[in-house]
Specification:
The chain is α+β, with helices and mostly antiparallel strands. About 30% of the residues lie in helices and about 20% in strands. The longest helix is centred in the first third of the chain and has 15 residues.
Length: about 375
């Protein structure tokens, strides 16, 4: 059972700034990196091998389809459908969420407004570390220190929306324009109520107590990640870099509104083939992350995915955006296997230590907290 530790993070350490490395041209050695080069940082079992960017030898299963799971189904039926999808591939498509699809259309414009500003405006918000998560702006090709992704990013957590009522909150510390905070607060508020029913269905599907994580999901820890993929030049395409490197999410689960431009690829662990994942407009793509794999004893896997350039030159010339919400457990929670799942696969570990030891593969070894 996840429990709360009395040990607090060292504030001087947790507020250290991220070392951003701006890469103007992808390095061929970086592009050829495989996940096994970074295996020492993993804290759950990951036996798959893949390059972080798409390579010519990758095999695809273009016939694979995920059947949408309807939230309007009776709880047992929804849990069964969601569980079958997540236990087999680690991803699921959820429809009938009650969220107006037009919200995603306007969110695309909000993301463009965030990123299509002068560089000087964006660099005022360069990402810094707050607790376990780097929050703020990541320039093009500087998402990590190990791989030059062709994307700009912006990560915003609870504190950026002042959801915990900090009297010293200043929107200008997080946002280039106050109206963007208001807009994305509406976006976040429409999705957070889904966390408990989705998590309950996941736990019910694997035989764990469905409400076990409810105490932490009434006001969930989360990170809204805004991704802005600019149009790709031929030079970018020739580099061999991906739009977003192959990875597994370091979280409990992710809520991703279905993107409108292709590129999301998911690795099927069972056969080593990549799946070109698409979902109906207005639906949510849900995937489980490392936290969930750890506490479920590998029953709900953290599944590899990446974003590659579209196959169409016309789509390569368009801006692509995405706005996933990563759901975490609080940093002082002890990650322990859920009850009712048999022999324990992993020893308990504090969420802050777990998260930072994994993500130090992206940000450098000094990023890791070790209890």
């Amino acid at each position: 059972m996840p429990t709360t530790s009395s040990k607090q993070p060292d504030l001087a350490f947790t507020l250290a700034a991220v070392k951003l490395v701006v890469v103007s041209k992808p390095n061929r050695d970086q592009v050829a990196t495989t996940n096994t080069d970074l295996a020492e940082y993993e804290r759950v079992d990951k036996r798959q091998t893949y390059t972080l960017a798409q390579r010519s030898g990758d095999v695809f299963d273009e016939d694979y389809r995920l059947e949408p799971c309807s939230l309007l189904s009776p709880p047992e039926i929804f849990a069964r459908a969601l569980g079958q999808s997540l236990t087999s591939i680690g991803f699921a498509v959820v429809c009938d969420t009650g969220i107006d699809p037009q919200l995603y259309e306007v969110a695309h414009q909000w993301v463009c407004d965030m990123f299509e500003r002068p560089s000087a405006d964006k660099h005022r918000f360069l990402a810094k570390r707050h607790g376990a998560v780097n929050q703020g702006y990541f320039p093009f090709a500087a998402t990590t220190e190990v791989h030059p992704d062709m994307v700009e990013g912006w990560v915003l957590c609870r504190r950026a929306f002042n959801l915990d009522n900090d009297p010293a909150f200043e929107p200008s510390a997080w946002w280039p324009a106050a109206e963007l905070e208001h807009s994305f607060r509406r976006f976040v508020a429409s999705h957070l109520p889904l966390c408990r029913p989705l998590c309950q269905a996941m736990l019910r599907a694997i035989g764990a107590p469905p409400e076990h994580l409810d105490p932490w999901l009434s006001r969930p820890a989360f990170g809204l990640r805004l991704n802005y993929y600019p149009p790709l030049s031929q030079t970018h395409l020739n580099s061999g870099a991906g739009r977003l490197l192959g990875h597994e999410d370091v979280n409990l689960f992710t809520l991703l509104p279905a993107p409108t431009i292709e590129g999301l690829q998911v690795l099927n662990r069972k056969n080593g083939k990549w799946i070109l994942l698409s979902a109906p407009p207005g639906s949510l793509i849900v995937n489980t992350g490392d936290y969930m794999q750890r506490i479920s004893g590998d029953r709900l896997p953290s599944t590899t995915h990446r974003v590659a350039p579209p196959r169409s030159a016309e789509l390569c010339a368009q801006v692509r955006t995405s706005f996933p919400i990563n759901i975490y457990l609080p940093e002082d929670v002890m990650l322990e296997q859920l009850p009712g799942l048999g022999p324990v696969r992993y020893p308990p570990i504090r969420a802050l230590s777990f998260h930072t030891q994994i993500t130090s593969k992206f940000y450098g070894d000094d990023y890791a907290v070790r209890d």
